[in-house]
Amino acid sequence: MLDRLQDTPPDALLALIAQFAADEREDKIDLGVGVYRTDDGATPVFGAIKAAEQRLWEEQVSKSYLGPEGDRGFVHALMPIIFGSDATMGGRIEGVQTPGGTGAVRLAIALAERAGVTRVHVGTPSWPNHIPIIEDVGLEAVTFHHSNDDGSADLDAVLGIIRQAREGDAVLIHACCHNPSGIDYTDEQWDAIADALADSPVLPIIDSAYQGLGTGLEEDAAGLRKVLAKVPYALIAYSCDKNFGLYRDRVGAFYAKVAEPAQMPAAMSNAAALARANWSMPPDHGGAAVRIVLRDEDLRQQWLDELDGMRQRLRWVRATLAGAQKKVEGVPLAHLEEQNGLFAMLPLNKDQIAKLREDHAVYMAGSGRINIAGLTKGNIDKFIAALADVAG
Ligand code: LMR
Predict the structure, then answer these.
(1) Residue 127 annotated to the active site
(2) Is the predicted ipTM greater than 0.90, yes or no?
(3) Tell me, what's the pLDDT at 392?
(4) What class of enzyme is it (predicted)?
(5) CATH architecture designation of domain 65-295
(6) Which residue, among 213, 205, 269, has the nearest Cα to 241 in the 3D structure?
(7) CATH class of the domain whose range is 10-45+300-391
(8) Which of 181, 215, 257, 329 is the 20 to 30 Å CA partner of 226?
């Protein structure tokens, strides 16, 4: 029976982790998988999370099951961060905890399928796991063009999809810090998208995995909030992996916005049933730590300060790369300063990416995506020189 299985290639992005680890060159640079790094190249546990974990260790009296919804305190503590002061919109937004943002995307797509969605429009390039999740649920993924070569988002493409959508369509949109391009919609573009969605049968699915790493915690949620203010229904996938540094603890949440509070029990009971069938219950530890941070004024401030520091460092990397444009002919860098989050796309071909790895020990995704957090004061000049070498 199992002899029918064909080899399937490992996830290229995750395979880079092992390739990088095996490289013995001391000056190697990891621009692969999306984790934040300090200027020392470390991905430390947030101080606020460490303190919350200690409190959790002292105060937690049981690890008995919580249920498929996970930690409701965590789910609710996060809501004002994502949705603003009117966080439930009068009982029209509710959610469940999920194993990471990936679990939340999975739940959103699976719930959309139960609600009658048959195809999901995805702007490309996108996170390489979006389309596999859509297809694994059994839906059709239809792509449209997300970003222009000049570093702007292709507004006409997304508006065209929304305006031509039919019943049974969904559109997956990145809330901020677009992965992999770093190219977000402007405020005016979000207004146009929200207006178009209000007049369309398309179901918006918004993936928010990097809130706080772009231009600010509130600013990064502005587009999502504009959409939710206008549409009757939406699904939101949220990740705490990056903005709480909880990657391997798998901390995320799924939310649904419905038109009437009376529709919420059906939405949440289906979400809970899907969670039960997929993973039964989400892992608790990281979500509990986030809940403790968000409910404690001092820890919350400490978290906000730590997040500010991360964002400022990412902006420094972007500004430094943009400032190096004159040294690197043929690879546009100047617009990186206007973009947001961990990622940027460099228009390099396979040979140039291989040369960067082989000659300069610079590891990046085969798509041309770099994780800019891998650049530090200690290695950014070497990276710029390597780029100039392969581009020249
Ligand atoms: C990334 O895009 O590098 C991250 O979101 C990690 C992942 O799971 O792919």
Answers:
(1) yes
(2) yes
(3) 79
(4) transferase
(5) 3-Layer(aba) Sandwich (3.40)
(6) 213
(7) alpha beta
(8) 181
